[in-house]
Specification:
Length: 441
């Protein structure tokens, strides 16, 4: 395959230039002057990337594919289609399925079925058995089988000593822990800023940042939503704690007023908060306090979301197919981030958290790079020899959010005009998504 006339943005090497690019055997084989590459045979496909950016395929460290057990909302295949349609080539699935990923049988089944998909699907394992917060899972065995990290996402860990033990186990394995930070003691009802105030998040963020500094464990503060929590992460990093933080597109795009307009499609945990909180998240993205943009892609059926009682409806929205567009529309175009900085938070930094290899690896391989690996080996660069995981998009082309490839449609962004239309997603050297052909796989 040849990709012609595009602009390469390589956040891992901080390079931007016009070029043609050749892919062979799943690798980036050649990068040449624009217009200089020609097919070696009639069988070599040529893609025109005029007016488009060629970037590393996006990486989302926080998705829910609802498989197993909740597949009327999403499954591995529809989740993979939504992934590719959004420009992502790698996703990290959370462990709060039914049954949860707290045992080898469930993890083995997921790993086997993921091999059939056109994008790279990796899986976390649960921190505690049954997500009950009482007894740790067998970290070593689950990691040996292919778990890339540990999380009870959706449920906070309320036992401080157990949390410390989990951090020590994860550190020994060189794997990260991701935390959903909402202390139930401060939550009247989940889903709104009034009934689930920021203190519920702040108090656990403070605890876990200090435990990370104490144990040396790499942790990820998931879907950060409050001004104080951003400040706490900033302080923890200044103190040397190995803390990552992620922000969702909905938390940097919307405030609590959106609930009045979009109802349950603006209900999520943690909830949308104030404009002050939203601006603090944007500032955290700008100064590097927040390393990662992650979707928390959380599909629910229309019937579930249309319950008359707001608080009876499940929390969460889909996000894979709007994430890049929201980043360009609400962060890049207003001047908060450059496009290169946005891509760093959607490629290089997620890869650093999960130590994802930049070199050619088939989608079936789940190994993580050791802690001593040089930065140049992490995913997020476009250079010969790297795996051909790419997204081709036009940052100046508008599209209307909707017509989702996800099985679910629960999003407040449906019908909004966003910028950054994805034309192609290429994973392992093969087209996983083409905007002109919604049946690529």
């Amino acid at each position: 395959m040849i990709i012609k006339n595009g602009t390469i943005l390589s956040p891992g090497t901080q390079e931007e230039y016009a070029a043609d690019l050749r892919i062979a055997d799943g690798l980036i084989a050649e990068i040449a002057l624009p217009g200089s590459l020609s097919p070696d045979s009639d069988e070599e496909e040529v893609l025109d990337a005029s007016s488009c950016v060629i970037a590393p395929g996006l990486v989302d460290v926080h998705v829910h594919f609802r498989d197993p057990g909740l597949t009327w909302k999403e499954d591995l295949h529809t989740g993979a289609r939504a992934t590719a349609a959004g420009g992502f080539t790698t996703v990290i699935c959370m462990a709060n399925t039914k049954p949860p990923v707290d045992n080898t049988d469930t993890l083995s089944d997921l790993l086997l079925r993921a091999q059939k998909e056109a994008i790279r699907i990796r899986f976390t394992a649960a921190v505690t058995k049954g997500l009950a917060g009482k007894e740790l899972t067998d970290f070593k065995t689950l990691a040996g089988l292919g778990a890339c990290g540990f999380t009870d996402d959706g449920i906070p860990l309320c036992d401080e000593k157990l949390t410390e033990q989990a951090m020590r186990r994860a550190k020994a394995l060189g794997l990260p822990l991701s935390f959903h930070e909402e202390d139930p003691a401060f939550i009247e009802k989940p889903g709104t800023n009034r009934t689930a105030p920021a203190i519920a998040e702040d108090i656990l963020v403070a605890r876990d940042c200090m435990l990370s500094r104490y144990t040396g464990a790499v942790i990820n503060i998931q879907h950060i939503s409050s001004e104080a929590s951003v400040a706490l992460v900033r302080t923890a990093k200044a103190l040397g704690a190995p803390v990552f933080a992620e922000a969702t597109p909905h938390h940097f795009s919307l405030t609590e007023e959106a609930v009045e307009t979009y109802g349950t499609c603006a209900k999520m945990n943690p909830p949308l908060r104030t404009e002050t909180d939203r601006q603090a998240i944007i500032e955290g993205l700008k100064d590097g306090t927040i390393d990662i943009i992650a979707t928390d892609h959380a599909p629910h059926s229309t019937a579930e979301k249309q319950k008359e009682d707001f608080f009876a409806a499940p929390s969460g929205i889909i996000g894979l197919e709007t994430s890049l567009g929201l980043g360009i529309t609400n962060l890049v175009r207003p001047g908060h981030l450059t496009l290169m900085q946005l891509l760093e938070k959607m490629t290089v930094n997620p890869a650093r958290l999960y130590r994802i290899n930049a070199l050619a690896k088939p989608a079936t391989v789940q190994d993580n790079l050791p802690e001593s690996t040089p930065e140049s080996f992490f995913y997020g660069s476009i250079r010969p020899g790297c795996a051909a995981d790419l997204v081709i998009f036009n940052p100046n082309e508008a599209f209307v959010a909707g017509n989702y490839q996800s099985k679910s449609e629960n999003s407040p962004f449906t019908g909004m005009e966003l910028y950054g239309r994805v034309h192609y997603t290429i994973c392992n050297g093969k087209i996983a998504w083409a905007a002109s052909d919604t049946a690529c796989f």
